[in-house]
Amino acid sequence: MTVDAETLLSAFQRGTTDLIEEKQLQGMIARSLETGTPLRIKFGMDPSSPDLHLGHAVQLRKLRDLQDLGCQIVLIVGDATAMVGDPSGKSKLRPVLTREEVEHNLRTYTDQAGRVLDMEKTEVRRNSEWFDAMGFEELLKLTTRMTVAQMLEREMFQTRMKNEEPIGINEFLYPLMQGWDSVMVKSDVELGGTDQLFNLLVGRRLQEQEEQRPQIVMTQPLINGLDGRKMSKSYGNAVGLTADAKEMTFRIMQVDDEVMPTWLLHLTRLSLEEIEQTLALHPREAKARLAAQVTGFYHGAEAAAEAAGAFDREVRDKVLPDDLPRVSWQASWGEELPLANLLKEMGLCQSTSEARRAIKQGGVKLAGEAERDERAAIGRPPGELLVQVGKKRAAHLVP
RNA sequence: GGGGGAAUUCCCGAGCGGUCAAAGGGGUCAGACUGUAAAUCUGAUGGCUCAGCCUUCGCAGGUUCGAAUCCUGCUUCCCCCA
After folding, report:
1. Which nucleotide lies at the shortest CA–C1' distance from A317?
2. Residue A23 CB closer than 7 angstroms to strand B?
């Protein structure tokens, strides 16, 4: 594949927040194309949180783009650094992981990243490779590369100091280690989230000190989750990379309108004009297009279209899915059971209290009819009975 | 080493010894509405054999007719001084 400098450069630029230094990058690209030596793009993975979501995909997709244009992706598995804990974006001290935990997470992690990247063409390196071999003397030497004052430049640390939150000494080590990784793999470019800027720049500094050509630093923004807040699994507003086509589509269809532009930019390969055109559509159409793009990338266009159809039927047209669970009347229920207990037994409610609430609020329907009497009792139905709780939960009760 | 503070229901965070299953916010759930499961509005939000009963406020004891609130010990965490 022949790639020209312009295409390559614009791939670096699309959706990128920081690009330091762009001039230097141009030179690197030119030299790379001239000599046929692929640029080494470093990306650090943190094996402490194995579940990847679309937020992580922003960077992974950028890497994939560059990979497709002939760049060599170097994936650093931070198994040594994970035992230190990255302070970036953390308001609290991170728990230190054991080796076993790191190893365990590693598998699932690379597994999921493989849904985006071509792992065949990716160089994977664990940084324990060099850190395990590093003696105390060398480590001490590494710590002399930066001063406490330089460390404290990070606003993160300052915020934490102001809030009287703890900062572990080990946390000072993290940026140095990440930077040292760059030295060890001789990276040309390092990619990271905007919260990583400080760490990435340390790599530049260390490489210069080691008389290497300092790496280009490029950052991608952290995208917000479905509800517009920071995407995080604990907020429940993330979409997992392992989600199947239907779940992915359904979840993307409920993003806030405001997050659509950033998602279109960072999670799809649509051109800027196409994005503009998309946003001009009816918001619902725009969202459908976004969902189709993203789901299509992970599961193929066919599965994405199928999921989109399911969304239209089940959500827009409120048709109940035909694969509803079927629950048979249990002998232990006797001839009659209070409705609240029945809902709990059928797994539609977590507790009878919750079931009672749902009934009182008119959220429970039997064969489509709302039942508002919380003391109602239900006997073995003559035939199949459709039981619904709210809009999302439903099951057939079978005699 | 010394001193000071904190631990509350899913989360954050209030809480005069009784009227506390515990304010408020978030989340979640339900209803209305709608372009969707968005936004907005309303209500609910420990459990149960549910007009009553049972179990919660770091852990273990104690004082009291009665404690999330007072005392003692323990555990964990934070801050300050050295």
Report:
1. B36
2. no
Q: Is the ipTM of this complex over 0.85?
A: no
Does the CB of A250 sit below 7 A from strand B?
A: yes
Nearest residue by alpha-carbon distance to C1' of B47? A353
Residues A102 and A199: their CA atoms lie apart, in Å, by 21
A5-220: CATH topology is Rossmann fold (3.40.50)
> Over the stretch A175-207, which tens digit does the pLDDT of each residue have?
899 999 999 999 999 999 888 888 899 999 999
- The CATH-assigned architecture of domain A326-398 is Roll (3.10)
User: Confidence band (pLDDT; 50, 70, 90) for A94?
Assistant: very low
Buried/exposed code over A305-343 (b: 16+ C-beta within 10 A; e: otherwise)? ebbbebbeebeeeeeeeeeeeebebeeeeeeebbbbbbb
pLDDT tens for each residue of A110-145: 888 888 899 889 998 988 889 988 888 888 888 888
- Is the domain covering A233-316 a CATH 1.10.240.10 domain? yes
